[in-house]
Amino acid sequence: MPGAYAPPYGELLLAVRKGDTSHSNDNDNDNDNDKDEEVLGCIALRPLYLTPNPTSTLTSTSTPTPPSTSTSISSQTPTPPPTTHSELKRLYVTPPARGLGVGGALVNAMLTVAREKGYGEVYLDTLKSMRAAVGLYRGMGFEEIEKYYEGAREGTVFLRLRL
C-alpha cells in the first residue's frame, strides 16, 4: 500500500505487541522472532491536495502540485510537503485490541509524524455509525467540517484538526 502513503510525504504505522521471548535460545533463527509479534492495528497518512470549489467548500484531488522548490539529495533539512494538508486513512484496530487504547496511540503517533513532516492540518472521514471512532477523534480536538471530496458514502462524517 505504498504510493501516496510512502515517505517522504506519507507514512504507515503498525501497532505491534511483542511476544514473550524468554523461551528463545541461541539456536533460534532471527526470522522466527516474527511469530512472537502480534499486529494490533495500523494507520496511514498521505498528503491531501485541496482546491476551492464554487459548489462546495473544498474538494480534494489525487493529483499533486509539484513542489515549488527542490533540494539536493545531500540536504540535511527535509523537503517540506507540497501541501499543508494531510489526511489520516486506514485506521484499523484488530477486534482483540479494541478498548485497549491502541487506536488513540496510533492517531497520536501519526499526528506527531504529521507535525514533523510540516503539515498544518489533518483531515479524515469516518462513518457516523462508528461512534467509538467519532468520539476518539472529537476527544483529540478534531472538528466536524463540510465534506472535502465527492462520492462519500451516506453517513460519512468529515473532520479536521489544525496542528
* CATH hierarchy: architecture: 3-Layer(aba) Sandwich
The main sheet comes to:
6 strands, mixed
Helix content: 10-25%
Tally of separate domains:
1
At CATH level 3, the topology is Aminopeptidase
The ordered string of helix (H) and strand (E) elements is: EEEEEHEHEE
**Mean pLDDT figure:** 84
- Tell me the distance between the termini: 26 Å
Q: How many DSSP H or I helices?
A: 2
Beta-strand fraction estimate? 25-35%
- What is the spatial order of strands in the main beta sheet? 1-2-5-6-8-7
Walk me through this protein's architecture.
With 163 residues, the protein is an alpha+beta fold. Helix content is 15%, strand content 34%. The protein contains 2 helices and 8 strands; from the N terminus they run βββββαβαββ. It has a 6-stranded mixed sheet, covered by helices on one side. A two-stranded antiparallel ribbon has the order 3-4. The longest helix has 16 residues, at 102-117. The chain is globular, with a radius of gyration of 19 Å. The protein starts with 10 loop residues before the first strand and ends with a strand.
Topology:
Elements: E1 11-18, E2 37-47, E3 49-53, E4 56-61, E5 85-93, H1 102-117, E6 121-127, H2 131-139, E7 143-145, E8 156-162
Parallel strand pairs: 5-6
Antiparallel strand pairs: 1-2, 2-5, 3-4, 6-8, 7-8
Question: What distinguishing features does this structure have?
Answer:
alpha+beta; 2 helices; 8 strands; 34% strand; globular; Aminopeptidase; 163 residues; 6-stranded mixed beta sheet; single chain; 15% helix
